[in-house]
Specification:
Blueprint lengths: L1 H20 L1 H22 L11 H30 L2 H7 L6 H27 L8 H29 L5 H13 L12 H8 L2 H13 L9 H4 L1 H25 L4
Helix pairs in contact: 1-5, 2-3, 2-5, 3-5, 3-6, 3-7, 3-9, 5-6, 6-9, 6-11, 9-11
Length: about 260
Amino acid sequence: MIWALADGWTMTRRNLTHWTRRPGQVIVGLLFPVLLVLMFGFLLGGGMAVPGGGDYREYLLPGMFALTMVFGIETTFAAVAQDADRGVTDRFRSIPMARSAVVAGRNAADMLNATAGLLVMLLCGLAVGWRWHEGLASAALAVALLLWLRFAMLWVGIWLGLVSRNPELLTAVQILVWPVGFLSSAVTFPATMPAWLGAVAEWNPLSATANAARELFGNPAAGGDGWAAQHPVLLAVLWPAVLVAVFLPLAVARWQALDR
């Protein structure tokens, strides 16, 4: 266990060192969600009316927090696929190190990056007038649920990266992720969609986390009478758990199959 932890920390430092040598890429990744907040909050938000009343920007920010966690899958995929494509992953597997170290290091580094990104988003939200209203404990639980979603998305990204082994397929991942991200309650309201589409949006894992964060922060809710809309916190726990239960074993199996 000590060997595995030491090797995992070494791989984490490797990933963090890459970011320090390419600060522009990290800065762009942190500021892009801020641009989305400004675009939706100020350019498009004037025409948005929250069901039941409330400020649209207070509705928007928890959705953008969750959307940022989902978009993190692209960072994970690109890093894993690039290492696999360049033979770095095969090199790591050929030297005497814990077999779990590469995946553990990717996990730790990406979760640190996600935490930094979420902190930037929280500060951005405070700057544009967003506030939480339910106390520090509820706010901390909302942050934990957001990071829990990112942890689940991380395993999806690792599996996709190991399967494809081609960083040029990042565009294909984006084509998959962006519709899923916006087919939710992150920036708009499922009640305004056609009935069948609204039902899909309500059951989107992203919607569950966004709605749970709104409830815990005390921000305006998305509305809706369905079971998913009425139990967002429970779904925000269960959906990522399901994704981890599915994609963690798939990622581990794919990792073990690389040398076959």
